[in-house]
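Batch job 17 of 40 flagged for manual review because the log was empty.
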Amino acid sequence: MRALIVAGLMMMAWVGAAAAAPGDAIDVTDNNAMIQFRPVVDCAAHPDAPHLSIYSPQAHCLGDAVITERDFARLERLRLGGSPILRAQLTPQAWSRYFEATRDHLFRPMALIVEGRATQVWIVRAPSRAIWLPISGGYLTDMKAEQVADRFYAQGGRD
C-alpha cells in the first residue's frame, strides 16, 4: 500500500514538473498579451492553433483568446496568509464575451495562460457570470504573480 502511495506521489510530482517545464510556453505573438483566457480546442479542427503541451499535444490546442489583460477594468493584488492573490475585474464588454464563451464551451476545458504558460486548466461546468476572475493559483508561483501584477501596473493598469 505504501509503495502505491509513493508511486502516486512520484507520478504527481513528475506531472507537475512536466507542466512547469520551459517547453510548455506557447506562441502568444498574435496579441502579445501577458494574461489570456483561452478555450481548449481539438487540434484536428484547428490545425494552426498553438498546442497546449501540458496535455497530449496531438489532441489539445488553444483557441483564440477570449479575454486578455486589456479587458480588465482593474487588477487587484490582495494578500491572504502572505501569498499574493490576483483577481481581475472585467469591463462590461469583456464580461459579456466571457459569459458567451463559457456558455458556448460547456463541459470542455478552458485555460488561463500567463506570460505564455498555462497556469490553470479547468472544465467549464456552467456559463460564468463572474465580473472578477482569479488570476493566481495553479502553477503560478507567488513571485511570478507579483511580477505579472507589477508589469500590469507599469503598463498603465490600475489597482
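Reviewer: the log was empty due to a logging misconfiguration, but the result itself is present. Confidence is low (pLDDT under 50) at residues 3-30. Unflagging and moving on to job 18.
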